[in-house]
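step=encode ok
step=design start
structure_in=
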């Protein structure tokens, strides 16, 4: 029971940190104002890692539209999560932690665990954004939160809108994207 609680707390902490870093990169990509919410929250949560990475990355990376520092921060956080999980729970479960070895198999396991976490966080964050957008489109389409979620989800919903016709005046692209993300999560797990 204690192991499950520790695992949950560790996963929740790293989920929030990785999601914040990925959301920061995405918000910069779609040019969302970072001074209002959730931009200021995302920056407050990720500045401790993103700012030092910006100083280390080459200047050419900083001139790109892609926020490489935030993406690298998310990747480093995923690797840290995988390493901590392997060390902590490998020891608690009585075995040797898989991350303790230095061999290529241990490194590959660590990196695949981190990549899986990174993809899962990205998909679940996307699911939350699209679900929030879909709900607000029905209950509060004039709100500022709806406009923000619309800007964040539009690059992903626009291609679907071109192929999925409206049914009875209802845009089903958000529902289709939610289903696609759920399928991707099933495949990932």
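sequence_out=
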């Amino acid at each position: 029971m204690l192991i499950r609680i520790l695992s949950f707390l560790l996963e929740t902490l790293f989920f929030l940190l990785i999601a914040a870093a990925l959301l920061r990169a995405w918000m910069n990509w779609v040019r969302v104002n970072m001074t209002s919410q959730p931009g200021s929250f995302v920056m407050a949560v990720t500045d401790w890692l993103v700012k030092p990475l910006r100083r280390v990355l080459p200047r050419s990376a900083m001139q790109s539209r892609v926020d490489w520092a935030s993406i690298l921060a998310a990747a480093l956080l995923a690797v840290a999560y995988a390493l901590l999980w392997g060390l902590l729970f490998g020891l608690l479960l009585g075995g040797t932690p898989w991350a303790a070895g230095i061999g290529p198999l241990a490194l590959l396991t660590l990196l695949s665990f981190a990549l899986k976490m990174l993809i899962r966080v990205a998909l679940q964050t996307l699911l939350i954004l699209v679900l929030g957008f879909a709900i607000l489109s029905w209950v509060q389409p004039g709100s500022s939160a709806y406009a923000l979620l619309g800007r964040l989800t539009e690059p992903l919903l626009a291609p679907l809108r071109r192929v999925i016709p409206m049914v009875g005046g209802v845009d089903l692209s958000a529902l289709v994207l939610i289903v696609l993300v759920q399928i991707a999560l099933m495949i990932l797990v």
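step=design ok
step=annotate ok -> The CA atoms of residues 86 and 99 lie 5 Å apart.
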